[in-house]
Amino acid sequence: GLWSNANYKSVPLNGIPTKSPESHCTVLWNQSNQDVYIAVHKLPKPPDDKQYQLWAIADGKPVDLGLLNNEHLDSNLQAMKGIPNPQAFAITLEKKGGVENPTLSEMYVMGGVTP
Questions:
Q1: Of all residues in the chain, what percent carry a pLDDT higher than 70?
Q2: DSSP string of the chain, one letter each residue
Q3: What is the reported pLDDT for 92?
Q4: What are φ and ψ of residue 106, in 5° steps?
Q5: Predicted confidence band at 32 (pLDDT cuts at 50, 70, 90)?
Q6: By the 8 A CB rule, do 14 and 111 touch?
Q7: Residue 66 burial (10 A CB sphere; 0-12, 13-18, 19+)
Q8: Could you say which of 18, 24, 62, 106 would form a disulfide bridge with 41 (CB–CB 3.0 to 4.6 Å)?
Q9: Any residues with CB less than 8 A from the CB of 8 and at least 6 apart, and which?
């Protein structure tokens, strides 16, 4: 599977201490074809009018990688939008349908990509 695929870098996203310290996710990022998958290990159940949104930080700016499906937060890998050169990944809780810029006060997890 993807977990053992050498092309995929595993990027742990740890809970923001002041927001949701117990939250934890993993991004699998393929350095050769830029594919991104998210695995949610623990995130609080979102209210019905909200959705989690995945972001990459690239060249110091947030890039939208898509919305997590509320129905599948405890299941396996979900495919997201690809990104060629991320420095980090983060997840925020946003209004349903997503937003153009992340709400930083609603960031739940974040993790840097090690070279």
A1: 99
A2: -GGG-TTEEEEEEEEPTTT-TT-EEEEEEETTT--EEEEEEE-PPPPTTEEEEEEEEETTEEEEEEEPPGGGTTSS-EEE---SS-SEEEEEEEETT--SS--GGGEEEEEEPP-
A3: 98
A4: -105, 25
A5: very high
A6: yes
A7: middle
A8: 24
A9: 2, 28, 29, 30, 35, 37
Start-to-end C-alpha separation, the chain: 23
d(CA 67, CA 53): 4
Could you identify the residue written with the tokens 């995945």?
Answer: 54
What dihedral angle (degrees, nearest 10) is formed by the CA atoms of 96, 101, 105, 109? 80
pTM: 0.96
Instruction: Write out the two tokens for 10.
Output: 């595993």
